[in-house]
Amino acid sequence: MGRRKKIVEQCERLMDNPEQIRNIAIAAHVDHGKTTLTDNLLAGAGMISEDTAGQQLAMDTEEDEQERGITIDAANVSMTHEYEGDDHLINLIDTPGHVDFGGDVTRAMRAVDGALVVVDAVEGAMPQTETVVRQALREGVKPTLFINKVDRLISELQEGPEEMQERLLSVIGDVNELIRGMTEEKDDIEDWTVSVEDGTVAFGSALYKWGVSMPSMQRTGMDFGDIIDLERSDKREELHEQTPLADVVLDMVAEHFPNPIDAQPRRIPTVWRGDADSEIAESMRLVDEDGEVVLMVTDIGVDPHAGEIAAGRVFSGTLEKGQELYVSGTAGKNRVQSVGIYMGGEREEVDEVPAGNIAAVTGLKDAIAGSTVSNEEMTPFESIDHISEPVITKSIEAQNMDDLPKLIETLRQVSKEDPTISIEINEDTGEHLISGQGELHLEVQTQRIERNQGIPVTTGEPIVVYRETPTSDSQEVEGVSPNRHNKFYITVEQLSDDVLEEIRLGEVSMDMPEQERREVLQEAGMDKETSQDVENIIGRNIFIDDTKGIQHLNETMELVVDGLTDSLEDGPLAAEPVEGALIRLHDARLHEDAIHRGPAQVIPATRDAVHRALIDADIRLLEPIQDVRIDVPSEHMGAASGEVQGRRGRVDDMYQEGDLMVVEGIAPVDEMIGFSSDIRSATEGRASWNTENAGFRVMADNLQREIIMEIRERKGMKTELPESITHF
Amino acid sequence: MLTFVGLGLYDEASVTVAGRDAIAAADRVFAEFYTSRLIGTDVAALEAHHDTTIERRDRAGVEQHPEPILDAAADGDAVFLTAGDTMISTTHVDLRMRAADRGIDTRVIHAPTAASAAAGLTGLQNYRFGKATTLPFPWAHGADGVPGSVTDTIEANRERGLHTLVYLDIKVDHPRVDGDAYMTASQAADLLATNWDADALGVVVARAGAPDATVRADRLGALADADFGSPLHLLVVPGSLHHIERDALRELAGAPADAL
């Protein structure tokens, strides 16, 4: 029997014992060594050869991942580990660290109960570290910490024991500060800060495959002094044999991460809003393998042979081939064609996957990342909204007309697999739009279309996604229908930042119970009466119906909302989406007869009125901005800060960290296109940098007209603004 | 001068003599057929009949951009044609007021319209009609099935013993339909039978003004299964019946005794 087969059988045996299962994710800032660590764990579990661990990057299965040396997709793997005499089944997801692929991290967190946060000892906690810790804690996932690249402190930086200790404690302190900030207000979480004494922190070198923790030191007798000696004298092989990284980390995983039985009762109320007293809730809390089947899909992948594969966490019941399951948000049922678990990049089919595990399923053709799949209709899980939104768009066209249908299908597939990608199909022009998190994100996705699907495509220059927002409150505006028999009286006000933030985070929506929605809005500062009159939430705008007892308005309301939706999707300045508007309907006069107040009358009346009210409310263009952090040797600091300032950016802070200078600031995404090559040449390639999308900002008045005209021209709109626009 | 001329109910012969003379005397002739049309003829036949050129305006060309009509009326004699009467049901009073605003003289030449035919053909007395209403196609309004305002109107009329004239939806050049769509009386009866009351009495008037005009009275449920031939149709939901009305429905509309 092959070794691999043996492991699969071992996994299958353990799958039925939730106490022995740990579902974990490895998450970190880009280049802090997640994937190398994952290889170590795989080698330790006998899944890949010891010799190649560290170079093989078994999890980076896509060609482009190996080329770029970064992880792009979250990848799944299962392995076994013996701890204190018991075998444990460890289901692990390796996640991308680059900020452009943050959506994958968010989705992975839904499937796991523990997050192994990896931090580079030299660089310390970085912006992306903060983001992943935040993502984990928001999902109720418990963190532990592995500080990687300690070998560099010893060999490269020649640090002594005291300096090293100081540096490591400061990394731990930074991570704990994040954890405390996020968990303070959660009463269901005891102290989740990590510490060396508790054994929730480990150190080591994923490259040289050694690691230590307090429990390992007690067991092996190896202390920091011994490690420094061996590392300095280049006896890394010995170090690895005496205190192998995989054992240290996997012991920590088995000891400190909750098993599904401990985790699910706490996590279910955070991620699922259904009836807590229902049978299905009980079955999920108990991880009942005999209960109703509930699978939360966190990832959709494509296998050249098996087709589309849905991966996700089984919260209840047992998945088997042949089951007919409901997929949330779609009608009818899908039939499970096969079930399996992951081993490295490969899927192993098994007979069944019980509650508490991460499963790979084929046949769920309607599922997308985020779907709830179950054998009886149920309240779906909270949507896994990744908080950052598309900021860059590119047009994409097939070079050969014959490829057009295939391209459309592929684009739809891409957006199904990666919900942070959004697609706009235009069948008339054949020029489709693909929007994502950043230049790299779009570049990777378009290359994959060319390479994996063999469709030659032409892509346009990257374009930034803009928005429009009111910057004051309007006077009452009258909207008149074309037949002049219907009139609507509306105003536009600015939504408060707090309310807008709640909408942005998905904390308030029309899907939630009315009472709950009112409470969230009131807590965010909306007055009570207004919060009671919310008629709809349209994009990131709220529509308030302030009218009382107008005959026939109820059967016209849907059309009013249609008109509002039209006007808010295409704002009056440049047909970019409007956000942050509170639209209030004060009064309406309607024709007696339904036919004279149909869509052709009501939609234009309300659409026009909203646009005029928005203009009266001093609507302005918003542009996306990014936080920028550059680490650079001091001699290049001037050039680096110049690169930020020269891009309409602002440098907020410059300080020394170790032997490098750090430049922190913000700049518009539009100006950051092409930043990589410019900063490289400006600093002779000595800078490392990180950018993170930081929301939208009102553009300076002296640029408004110029940019609006550029967008209008690009969209083939008239290049003149309504005369009533005089506020910039 | 802007003269509003009703073309009557069915074909080029339905117009009044006064209307015909006004068309003959006009410098420009405009028309709209988006609210209703003459089923028994078309624009070319009308043009031939009146020996003139008809400029057809769409909805936007009347409601949003009426300037060409008004300019022609300011400079000379213009007529504006619609099927039926120009001021009943589809009211073009807005266009008339815009003309008045510009100091243009206006006049109205009436013609038979669905409302008079409904009373005329069914024998239901025009004194005893309440508010009228239009039944839209289910996809064309903002609610499901039948809009509440339609059934509310019928019920409010019936409480006072009054009949309800139900106009049936017409969609001309609508993006949702190929060609033109006319709701049939059986579709209307079916909608009301399903969403309101299948046992209530209904009276169908098909092709009013045409040589083969048809009238049928029965329960809505039964009317839903019948076929009344080509358009246009309309439906009346009677309130209480005067004895002459009852006799008329039996004699002229074939109402079964148990439905009255």
Your description of this structure?
The complex is a heterodimer of chains A (728) and B (260). With 728 residues, chain A is α+β, with helices and mostly antiparallel strands. Chain A has 5 domains: 1-260, P-loop containing nucleotide triphosphate hydrolases (Rossmann fold); 271-372, Elongation Factor Tu (Ef-tu), domain 3 (Beta Barrel), CATH 2.40.30; 390-464, Alpha-Beta Plaits; 467-616, Ribosomal Protein S5, domain 2 (2-Layer Sandwich); 619-701, Alpha-Beta Plaits. Chain A has 24 helices and 32 strands. In chain A, the strands form 6 sheets. An 8-stranded antiparallel β-sheet of chain A has the order 12-11-17-8-9-16-13-14. In chain A, a hairpin with a 3-residue loop joins strand 8 and strand 9 (307-316). The longest helix of chain A has 23 residues, at 161-183. Residues 68-72 of chain A have low confidence and may be disordered. Chain B has 260 residues and is of the alpha/beta class. Chain B folds into 2 domains: 1-107, Cobalt-precorrin-4 Transmethylase, domain 1 (3-Layer(aba) Sandwich); 112-251, Tetrapyrrole methylase, C-terminal domain (Methyltransferase, Cobalt-precorrin-4 Transmethylase, Domain 2), CATH 3.30.950.10. Chain B has helices at 17-25, 43-50, 59-63, 67-75, 93-101, 114-122, 148-159, 185-197, 220-223, 243-253; strands spanning 2-6, 28-31, 54-56, 78-82, 106-109, 133-135, 164-168, 170-171, 181-182, 201-206, 214-219, 233-237. In chain B, the strands form 3 sheets. Chain B has a 5-stranded parallel β-sheet, with helices on both faces. In chain B, strands 6-7-12-10-11 form a 5-stranded mixed β-sheet, with helices on both faces. Chain B has a two-stranded antiparallel ribbon with strand order 8-9. In chain B, helix 2 (43-50) links the parallel strand 2 (28-31) and strand 3 (54-56). Chain B is elongated and about 60 Å long. The model of chain B has no long low-confidence stretch (mean pLDDT 91). At the A-B interface, helix 19 and helix 20 of A face helix 3, strand 6 and helix 7 of B.
